[in-house]
Amino acid sequence: MNIVGIEKRELLKLKASYIDHPLSIKEFMYIAETFDALWKYDYDAAENGKVGMHAELKSGLHSDMFFVSKILLEPDSIMQIISEQIVMKFRKLLCEPDIFMPDYIVGVPNGATKLGENISKILNIQTIEMKKIDGRILLVTPIKARKIVLIIEDFCTKGTGFTEAVGTIMKAQPKAIISHCDPVILNRGGLKNIFIGKKSFKILPVIEYPVNEWEPKDCPLCKLGSIPIKPKETNENWEAITTSQLYE
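^ that's the sequence the OP posted. Answer follows.
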């Protein structure tokens, strides 16, 4: 079935088992917009003097589009649909060399924490816990040597969160084995692989949707006078960026 056009109240009741195909970009965007999890810079408003704010990404780059996974995954039906989509992609990858069923699953905090837990339940694999404290990712659950860890992300731009999570795990347990793929909801940076040292990790997205992103010094929105802000840092930040170009 095609999700586009389904009313919000029906999406809230939709079962993941009804979606027997990989989500299209159009379907994903429709879900994100329906649940107000997507922000886009309004260039028309900017032309009329309302330059507002724009997004500063975790990587430090600036962008004119942003998704918030916490909002997207808040409805249980959408959490289940997205989780099953990731599991579908991962299972297809199991036939490739160096990709094995993991012993542990963890979602990069805070955006993918609950997503990782949900995928763990679907695959019946132990969840390990990570927390973000004072901007740093810390491993809470001890892990055993020579066990495979699958790291789940919500969105990927430059692989910053994944790279930090890998470093945290390897520091705590140097003999851990990190799965050679990075399942994500959305790959918005256009990367195919994340390289850490001599190892390569394949990005495994539900959706590939490259968005505009710029170094701060090259950001055309900054040159317009728009203010960069980290949308996920606080609820107030999300409210600020989504309303910054509205007319009173």
